[in-house]
Amino acid sequence: MKLTVADYLDQLAGGKTITTEVETTASKVQQKAPLKKAVETVVDALDTGHLGKYQITIKVRKGDPVVFHLDTNLINIPMAEAERLDVKLLDKEISYPVNLYMVMESEDVNKSGLRIDELANETDLSGDIDSLVERLQEWLAEHLADVMEARA
User: Fold this and answer.
1) How far apart are CA 79 and CA 30, in angstroms?
2) Residue 146 to residue 54: CA distance in whole angstroms
3) pLDDT (tens digit, 9 = 90+) per residue, 20-75?
4) pTM > 0.90
5) To which H or E segment does residue 101 belong?
6) Which residues form the domain of 75?
7) How many angstroms separate the CA atoms of 62 and 12, rounded?
8) 68: Cβ–Cβ under 8 A, 6 or more apart, which residues?
9) What is the C-alpha separation between 128 and 37, in angstroms, rounded?
10) Under DSSP, is residue 71 helix (H, G, I), strand (E, B) or coil?
11) What's the structural domain count of the chain?
């Protein structure tokens, strides 16, 4: 799917985003099944012409829960900060591919409290879901470990 900045912002404002929110534990969230469901849910939303967001609140043994989400966006900023998609960053006339980003929010993930990396571009989204799940599983394990280490 490709969108202009205006179309993307209109979809967000117009409620054309399919959002799923769940809660689980750190050990359960790192298993393949819940991550596959998350990726499939967002890919299915895109396939129907909607933006997708899948948010998981992760309960951990020590400290506040960690918030993880898969976001669909044109560049690597969280959907919640879409107003940052201004014309200084992107040309408003051009249609950009919608990519899938892995986002982790926690005071302990890094100094900014936010980690975001691309999971899939437009081409990857039409490919093998299992390889995306594997990449997501590795990323999530690494950054949850960073949070736990910072809290130790």
Assistant:
1) 23
2) 22
3) 999 999 999 999 999 999 999 999 999 999 999 999 999 998 889 999 999 999 98
4) yes
5) strand 99-105
6) 2-151
7) 34
8) 29, 55, 56, 58, 102, 103, 104, 105, 140
9) 14
10) strand
11) 1
- Among all chains, which residue has been given the structure tokens 């967002």? 42
Find the helix or strand (DSSP H, E) in which 123 lies.
helix 122-125
Please write the tens of the pLDDT for every residue from 113-141.
899 999 999 888 887 899 999 999 999 99
Query: Distance between CA 6 and CA 4 in Å, rounded?
Result: 5
Average pLDDT of 2-28? 91
- 127 sits in the region (left: phi over 0; alpha: psi -120 to 50; else beta) called beta
If you count them, how many residues does the chain have? 152
